[in-house]
Amino acid sequence: MAEEAVKLCDENTIGVVAILGSTFDGSYEPVQAISAALDAFETETGIDVPVHVDGASGAMIAPNTSGHKYGLVYPGVGWIVWRESEALPEDLIFFVNYLGDNMPTFALNFSRPGSQVVAQYYNFLRLGFSGYRRVQTYGRDVAMRLSAQIAELGPFELLTRGDELPVFAFTLKDEVENFTASTSRTRCASAPGSSLRTRSRRTAPTSQRFVSSYGAGSPTTWPTCSSTT
After folding, report:
1. How far is residue 85's CA from residue 68's CA, in Å, rounded to a whole number?
2. 54-101, pLDDT tens digit by residue?
3. Which residues contact residue 105 at a Cβ distance below 8 angstroms, ignoring those fewer than 6 apart?
4. Which of 7, 18, 42, 103 has the most CB atoms lying inside 10 A of its own CB?
């Protein structure tokens, strides 16, 4: 993945975004490998391409955060934190002369009502670090236990296990899918006036192929028979 990202970079590239917690299957993209590949690219070409790590659904699980992901607050709240004031670009600060003094003001655009901030602050006070850790650890334990049980059933192949985000994805094994389609075709063909409609895993939309531990997305597509007259 890192090598593929670098192949797409040139002098017009403004940055590479790595997802730390994919909403599709709960996995983390290799941020360190992408960063190292871009460092090597800069050494070879002199082109500096920065990296932005998007917390996506990994927030509050991985070491970055967003209130409306696993921060336990409804959508609309988020924040950005700079390690030190020197890291905040001065271009983002608006200076205004007010009451005889030069006052720096910094605010993000598209401001929203403050209710989400109040809810987030309440959760921080109520749960604290240990409380949030307990909630997220419990979710991960549930996901990993469910994925392990599904793997033991036999016909399914795990794509992720829930050990990164508390979400996992799985699909039918190739041999099972082929057998199921073949068997269904035989049964349907033997029934008078019947036809078979099948959709393979490779041609079905992604949303039909993945199932998460919390039921997100559509179930794995199965061959179906339909009667015709």
Report:
1. 25
2. 876 776 787 677 777 788 887 777 777 788 888 888 887 878 787 778
3. 93, 94, 95, 96
4. 18
Residue 104 dihedral angles phi and psi, to the nearest 5°: -80, 135
Q: Do strands 170-172 and 156-158 pair parallel, antiparallel, or not at all (unpaired)?
A: antiparallel
Q: Any idea which residue has 């490779």 for tokens? A: 202
Beta bridge partners of 170: 158
Torsion over CA: 112, 114, 117, 119 (sign): negative
Nearest Cα residue to 151 out of 127, 175, 168: 168
The helix/strand/coil state of 102 is strand
Separation between Cα atoms, residue 130 and residue 196, nearest integer Å = 54
Can you give the pTM of this predicted structure? Answer: 0.61
